[in-house]
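We treat protein structure as text, and this decision shapes the records that our systems exchange. Because each token names a local backbone shape, the row as a whole describes the fold. For reference, a complete record is included directly beneath this paragraph.
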Amino acid sequence: MQENYHYLDATGLLHYNMTNDYMFRMVLQRDKNTLINLISSILGIPVSKIKDVKIQNPVEVGRSINDKEYQMDILVLLNDNTYINIEMQVENYNNWPMRSLSYLCRRFDNAARGQDYNQVKPVYHIGFIDFTLFEDHPEFFAKYQVRNTKDNYLYTGNFNLYVIELNHTDIATSEDKASHVDIWAKLFKATTWEEVKMITKDNPSMNSTAESIYMSNADINILEQCRAREDAIAHEKYQKELIENLNATIADQEATIAELRKLLQEHGISEA
């Protein structure tokens, strides 16, 4: 019996798609099947091997997020033995490498007091970003680990940092496509219901994700928080640009003063 998905009747623009980090979090919280299938694709684990996924830092649906809680990462415990931190980041603040490593290191320190370090649970940080991390090295799906610089020998498989550049699905590898990571990226960036339906038509396992997006877009409380997140990001971006412009102005003024001082010295004129 085919399920009755409401999103199939929707048309036009989505209010907010999955690049809004609040919508991203709400959809993954709402639909456990989405979380399982997404992790399966990215980590290359058969769905049958995923016994359980638990979000360790859930947010009440529609609850407002104050300034101190603007870190919208999702911490998942997979099969009670692996931590996965998942983030959606659209704006480039030029700090992603250090930020993602900080998150990963905090989670890697997960051994209980007195416990042997061999009991540390494996950790993954999965970042979905909508910009190019390294301009001289664009890549759709990059996997980073700790390895020997001479022969690439793996130090440990328990420390993993994954970066998925949503703006580079065009250079997805055959391996990326085989695991449907590129399809997830396209679904997350879809801005119309027509796009969503085109994607799910060939990927029925994503039907529940599309339905969760639809239900979340129909929830006024979630929409208010999505709007608040966009406003906060826009304000933060404006402040950053304002500070950069002020710093540039100060630098120009200092350069002008230095040049004037040089001219005064050349003409033997002392400063008052």
